[in-house]
């Protein structure tokens, strides 16, 4: 499967200050990973710590918070990980699903997908 990047904007929780970042679309990442310095510059404050398993099997904990992300002209609130400095920003599955998007690796773009509702409606 090919990889590709998309431009997203991240803001403070109130949506008053925004910064753009080029993020790797990563379906293997549960949450969106943003460098700590960018989140701190925006005034995003860590709300909790969460455990992760890295691709090499190591277990780590990182701080997380809820803030706003803008993608293709739409804005959503999502969870973000305070990432290590020098690491690449990642657009994770949780954020993509919140936007109703799925990666199209062949055409290297995000495409709209309908939500699934597993119930019977009368």
* CATH superfamily caption: Acid Proteases
Might you state the CATH topology name?
A: Cathepsin D, subunit A, domain 1
What value does the Rg take, in angstroms?
15 Å
Q: How confident overall, as mean pLDDT?
A: 93
The major sheet is characterized as: 7 strands, mixed
Structural class: mainly beta
Content of β-strand: over 45%
Report helical residue fraction.
10-25%
Number of strands: 9
Number of domains: 1
Secondary-structure element pattern, one letter each: EEEHEEEEHEE
Low-confidence segments, given as residue ranges, are none
Name the quaternary structure.
single chain
What's the architecture, going by CATH?
Answer: Beta Barrel
The number of distinct helices, counting runs of at least 4 residues, comes to 2
Outline: globular
Name the CATH class: Mainly Beta
Terminal CA distance: 40 Å
Describe the structure.
With 122 residues, the protein is mainly beta. It has one domain: Acid Proteases (Cathepsin D, subunit A, domain 1, Beta Barrel), CATH 2.40.70. 11% of the residues lie in helices and 48% in strands. Strands 1, 2, 3, 4, 5, 6 and 7 form a seven-stranded mixed β-sheet that branches. Strand 8 and strand 9 form a beta hairpin. The radius of gyration is 15 Å and the shape is globular. The mean pLDDT is 93.
Write the layout of secondary structure elements.
Layout: E1 5-11, E2 18-25, E3 32-35, H1 36-42, E4 48-53, E5 59-71, E6 74-83, E7 90-91, H2 93-98, E8 101-104, E9 109-112
Parallel strand pairs: 2-7, 3-6
Antiparallel strand pairs: 1-2, 1-5, 4-5, 5-6, 8-9
């Amino acid at each position: 499967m090919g990889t590709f990047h998309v431009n997203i904007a991240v803001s403070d929780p109130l949506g008053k200050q925004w910064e753009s970042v080029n993020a790797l679309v990563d379906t293997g990442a549960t949450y969106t990973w943003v460098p700590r310095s960018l989140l701190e510059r925006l005034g995003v404050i860590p709300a909790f710590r969460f455990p992760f398993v890295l691709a090499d099997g190591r277990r780590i904990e990182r701080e997380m918070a809820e803030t706003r992300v803008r993608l293709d002209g739409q804005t959503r609130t999502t969870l973000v990980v305070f990432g290590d400095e020098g690491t690449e920003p990642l657009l994770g599955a949780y954020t993509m699903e919140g936007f109703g998007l799925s990666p199209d690796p062949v055409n290297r773009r995000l495409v709209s997908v309908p939500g699934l509702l597993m119930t019977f409606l009368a």
